[in-house]
Amino acid sequence: MNNEKIKISLVITTYNWEEALEVVLSSIKKQSELPFEVIIADDGSREETLQLITKMQATFPTPLLHCWQEDKGFRAAQIRNKAIAQAKGDYIVMIDGDMVLSPNFIASHNKNAKKGWFVQGCRSLLNAPLTSKLINKPFVPNFFTQGIKNRKNCINNQLLSQLFSYKRNNANSTRTCNFAAWRKDIIEINGFDNNFVGWGREDSEFVERLLNSGKNRLYLKFSGVAFHLNHQENTRSFLPDNDLRLKETIKYNKCKCQNGINKYL
C-alpha cells in the first residue's frame, strides 16, 4: 500500500451525455484528495459538452482539460490513448463519464498504487429513477440510498479492503470505468489498440498485454467506490471482430500493439 501522494491524472471518457458528466465533475470537486489533473477524453461529443467543460473550468479546483476527437463512431481506445499521451501525472485513473465518485475515491486509488501493479476497481449500479434524481440535483449516493442494485459494492472500509482485495491475474471482469495503472506501464505496452472500433474487448485486450508484460492485477474491493448511472447499453455489433483481436493477443502472448499510444506521444 502506498503512503506517499502521487500525481494522479484522472481520465474520463464521455460521449454526448453532458448531464451525466456534470454530475461526475461535481463529485470530483468533493474529493478528500484532488487528482493532479482531470482530462475529459471526449469521443466526438457535440458543442454542449464543450460548453459545460468551459463553464466548469472557471471554478474547478484542479486543472480540467478537454481532449476531443471527431465523431467517427465508438473509438474509446483511441481517445483514451490521446488523453493519456497528454497526461502529466505519473499514475492514470480511468473512469467513464457516467461514474459518480465517492468522496475518497482518488485517495483510495492513491493508497493502493504499487509499482508493478495495476488496479481493477468495482462499481455500484444505480437504477433509472435514482439516476434521474442525481441528474436533476447532483449528490453522491451512499450505502443507504434507495435505488442501488449491488449494494455491497458501496461499502467503503479500509480494513475490509485489505482483507478482501486480492491478486487476480486474468482479464475477467475488466471494466475501465474504474481502473488505474502507471503511465509508464501503459506506454510500455503501447497503450490501447487503436484498431478496436465499436463497443467491447478493447479494455480486456489491454489488460492481457499488461499481464503479458509481467504486471500484476489488484482486484480492489470495498475501496475506490464509484456509482454507475443507469443508461441504455451500446450496440454489440462490433463484438465478433473485437473478440478475434482479443483471442489473437492471448494466442500469441502479445505485450505490445502496433497501432497504439505511440502515435500521440
What does this structure look like?
The protein is α/β, with parallel strands linked by helices and 265 residues long. The protein has a single domain (8-263), classed as Alpha-Beta Complex (Spore Coat Polysaccharide Biosynthesis Protein SpsA, Chain A). Helix content is 33%, strand content 18%. It is globular and about 50 Å long. The model has no long low-confidence stretch (mean pLDDT 94).
Q: What string gives the helices and strands in order? A: EHEHEHEEHEEHHEEHHEEH
Portion of residues within helices = 25-40%
Please give the number of β-strands.
11
Question: Which fold name corresponds to the CATH topology?
Answer: Spore Coat Polysaccharide Biosynthesis Protein SpsA, Chain A
N-to-C CA distance: 30 Å
Rg:
17 Å
The secondary-structure class comes to: alpha/beta
**Would you state the CATH class?**
Alpha Beta
Which spans have pLDDT < 50 for at least 5 consecutive residues? none
Strand order across the largest sheet: 3-2-1-4-9-6-10-8
**Can you tell me the number of structural domains?**
1
In round numbers, the mean pLDDT is 94
Which range does the strand content fall in? 15-25%
Largest sheet: 8 strands, mixed
By CATH, the superfamily comes out as Spore Coat Polysaccharide Biosynthesis Protein SpsA, Chain A
